[in-house]
Q: What sequence folds into this?
């Protein structure tokens, strides 16, 4: 095993788990489209090499979903909708800016 340090300042895990309407799940509430919108915005802002957006399976907090977890900052965004895109990007921007300050010290 090789142990490395991630190249990303933060990594967004967007739960897209779908239970096909049989039980509450993030993927049934629009997260695949939201993930695509987040990825597009990350690319537009030039953060592609420092912010990663990945599809995630169930994050274990379905009832509060749809959910996005941000690591390594340990941020859980719950009840997200497409309308939250500006706030999600603002949170990522805050992380990118703080992490940049930490690197410069
Ligand atoms: S289905 Fe998304 S947290 Fe469980």
A:
């Amino acid at each position: 095993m090789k142990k490395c340090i991630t190249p990303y300042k933060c990594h967004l895990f967007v739960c897209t788990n779908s239970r096909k309407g049989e039980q509450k799940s993030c993927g049934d509430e629009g997260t695949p489209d939201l993930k695509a919108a987040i990825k597009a915005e990350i690319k537009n802002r030039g953060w592609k090499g420092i912010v990663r957006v990945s599809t995630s399976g169930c994050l274990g907090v379905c009832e509060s979903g749809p959910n996005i977890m941000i690591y390594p900052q340990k941020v859980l965004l719950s009840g997200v909708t497409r309308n939250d895109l500006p706030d999600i990007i603002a949170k990522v921007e805050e992380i990118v800016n703080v992490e940049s300050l930490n690197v410069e010290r």
Notes: The chain has a mean pLDDT of 95. The beta strands are 10-15, 51-56, 67-71, 75-78.
